[in-house]
Each structure stands twice: as C-alpha cells, then as structure tokens.
Amino acid sequence: MTHTAIAAGATFPVLTVKALDGSDVELGKISDKADWKIVVVYRGKHCPLCTRYLNTLETFKQRFIDNGVEIAAVSADSKAQLEEHLPSLTTSFPIYYGLSIEQMQALGVYISNPRSEKETDHRFAEPGLFVINEKNQVQVLDISNGPALRPEIATLAAGLEFIKAPENNYPIRGTFQ
Fold first, then answer.
1. Exposed (0-12), middle (13-18) or buried (19+): which is 112, by Cβ within 10 Å?
2. pLDDT for the residue numbered 1
3. Helix, strand, or coil here: 18?
4. Of 44, 58, 145, 155, which cross-links 110 as Cys (Cβ 3.0–4.6 Å)?
C-alpha cells in the first residue's frame, strides 16, 4: 500500500467542493477577512469524535480570527448527510460537503471504507488539518489514519500565534528533501 501526503510548503491544491446552498466553493481560497486559513477534513456525520472536534474548534474561532486565520471544514458526506449533521454542530464557520476520492488523494489524507451501512454509505476521508498561508502554501499540516488522533486546538491556536508573529520569522518546517 502506498500513501502520499501533500508536502509542507507545497501550494494548496485547487479543490472545488459544495456549500450548503449548492454553490461551488474553492476550498483553499482565503477570503478578504483573513490572510491564512485552516481547512479541516473530517470523517462525516457518522463520527462523534468529528462532531466534538468541530464544536471545540468553534470555541477557539475568535482567537483564530483575531490572528487573521479563518476556518472551513469539509467531508465526503452528501448534502443530505451534512444537513442531518447540522443540528449536532454548534459551528458558525463554513462546512462543505462532497469531497471526492480524487480530492482526498490530492490532499494525501487517508481514505477508509465504511465498516457497515450503519456507519455510512461511502468511502470517507480520515482526519486532516491544513493551515494555508497568505502565499497559498501549506504552512502546517496534520493527517491521521483514524479519528482519535488530531491536533489539540489550544496548542494549534498558540502555535499559529507564534508562527505568524513577524518578530519570530518562523519558516515552514519539514521541507528537507
């Protein structure tokens, strides 16, 4: 089995996903309200750990915004699955749906088959988190092959505050080839 992850410092790929209103959205595009972006790839509505992670991320949202970092999340779920999931979420950041297998592969996230139809009805991405800088480069990334291992959000917030502080002149790490 071969697995290839997106490289630190690489340009974040152009990936078009769906917003709840059915419009197409470029996942990595940073709005005029921020200069960096966190993209969280989550497993889908079937995953209670994902629900908890997204809800916890919401409690840090203002801290990220104050640091110029916006948040978006995406899964391979359908629109109907996302709509069913929304009542369990306390999030106010955008959550998109329809991540394809090809897009998951472009990001280098792990992909799983459902254990049964009770879990979900499609292949899905295991957790991934990508921080995109103002140059559209992957500044920081974390991928996991299971739902229990994800970046601790308070540590991520503090780390991005340090990385973005101009006096620290902090480079993209992990680029040695």
1. middle
2. 60
3. strand
4. 145
